[in-house]
Amino acid sequence: MIEVMDGTDRADELHVLACTECPRISSASAKGWKAYRVDGPEDDQERVLGFYCPECAEREFGPH
Ligand SMILES: [Zn+2]
After folding, report:
1. Burial grade of 52 (CB within 10 A; 0-12, 13-18, 19 or more)
2. How far apart (Å, rounded) are the C-alpha atoms in residues 1 and 43?
């Protein structure tokens, strides 16, 4: 996974979310964004939260 941070200086200070699937970055409110637990390929692998913008969340996981 490549993190795209161009044009957004110190985005981490704004508590915005970066979409897992596309370069989109959330607004401060992160309205409509969803976090999903992403399982690793191995059972003993650590599970991490992946953030998805509304568009990608619907494409990847459906409207619900
Ligand atoms: Zn996205």
Report:
1. buried
2. 20
CA dist., res. 32 & res. 57, Å (int): 9
* pTM, to two decimals: 0.63
C-alpha 42/C-alpha 32 separation (Å) is: 30
Residue 10 to residue 30: CA distance in whole angstroms: 17
Paired residues of 52 in beta bridges? 34
Distance 46 CA to ligand 1 centre (A): 23
* Predicted confidence pLDDT, tens digits, the chain (64 residues): 666 665 555 545 567 899 999 999 999 899 999 998 887 777 777 788 899 999 999 999 887 6
Distance from Cα 62 to the centre of ligand 1, integer Å: 13
